Amino acid sequence: MNTAPDPYPIGTPGTPWGEAERADWLSQQSRQRSYESEVLSVIKRLSPDFDVEEYGALDYGSERYPLMAIRSRDWRDDLPVVLITGGVHGYETSGVHGALQFVEQHAADYAGRINLLVAPCVSPWAYERIHRWNANAIDPNRSFHENSPAGESAALMQLVNPVRDDVLLHMDLHETTDTDESEFRPALAARDGKPFEPGDIPDGFYLVDDSENPQPEFQQAIIDAVEQVTHIAPADDKGEIFGSPVASRGVIQYPLKQLGLCASVTNAPYRTTTEVYPDSPRATPEQCNAAQVAAVCAGINYALANQ
């Protein structure tokens, strides 16, 4: 016998949140890790070999978060740009550390072949609180559009705008976690006054392609590389992954621009959103980071070979 899930503890079922509910939600968020010691310290360590810039800052109450980007030092206007973004959802840890690990271990392999632009932690407030939303209960990864309500999204768009037509490849590094189903999707339904409809979390790595400009061979090249590091999410008995039809093994499609997703911020012919599954008993944090790195390398290699 199926039982209805318990109502989310904030708000009234069926009624969208107002200021009081958002304030109640915010009061329950606590800092659980340090952006400065875990992210900024790594960026500082990389600064002798790369150009590091503060492209904006977030002010939430008494807290200020500098938004940092890493660029190729030998930037050349005749080279294609590769954009890597991580931590758009702050709780998706391997997106942040996978981006940094790629820069540290592999960026030099592509020197003189690409201009590299990396925003490793787009949402530092949420990184510290291991959360999906920013302090205003807004999802940055539905906010990449004109007049964005999310400072995280607006700042990144401003950073990228001068090169958006020069980007060959954009890799946006994400995770799908068990807390998507236990916390974040129920919170979203409550915030918007909608019923929560339970779903299944896929066990494994998958990709989100652009349904408006699908690149199946590019996506498959990434899947093939990542499979050497961690397992690929199978389709469920409906032929879906996380409620979306499987376009090819380990790949689903979203209309990126229509949904205001980060992967829509450039006109890159090659773009994808990675989805690592860190809660699998078959994956370690090190494997999750390595999967992100493998995805980035495979993406760059394919894009360069097929530009």
UniProtKB/TrEMBL annotation:
Cofactor(s) listed: Zn(2+)
Domain Peptidase M14 as annotated: residue spans: 31-307
Keyword vocabulary terms for this entry: Carboxypeptidase, Hydrolase, Metal-binding, Protease, Zinc
Pfam family for this entry, one: AstE_AspA_cat
UniProt KW Zinc keyword: yes
CDD domains xrefs: M14_REP34-like (cd06231)
Biological-process GO terms, alphabetical: proteolysis
One MF term in the entry's GO annotations: zinc ion binding
Domain of life of the native organism: Bacteria
Family label: Belongs to the peptidase M14 family.
Protein name per its UniProtKB record: Zinc carboxypeptidase
Organism: Marinobacter litoralis
